[in-house]
Write a structure and sequence with these properties.
By secondary structure, the chain is an alpha+beta fold. It is 27% helix and 29% strand. The protein has one helix and four strands.
């Protein structure tokens, strides 16, 4: 009986791990991200990947920027 209970729990854990891993593979592939710099600073560059990556956007006078089309990568691609 203890072994059956352990197997059932292990099966649930494995299913949850697979579900979490596949989360990025289904549903929307891109999102809109809003960035707020506090304290508000105008002209902060938001770059992709690193400091030297491609420039995505620059913050406005309120320290805000909205970045549309941010891609989500599937874990299994």
């Amino acid at each position: 009986m203890l072994l059956n209970n352990l197997r059932a729990r292990l099966a649930v854990v494995v299913l949850l791990l697979v579900a979490f891993a596949l989360t990025g593979c289904f549903g929307p592939k891109s999102f809109t991200v809003t960035v707020k710099i506090d304290p508000a600073l105008e002209g902060v560059e938001i770059r992709e990947g690193s400091r030297t990556g491609p420039l995505r956007r620059t913050t406005n006078a309120e320290g805000l920027v909205e970045i549309k089309g941010v891609k989500v990568r599937c874990l299994f691609r």
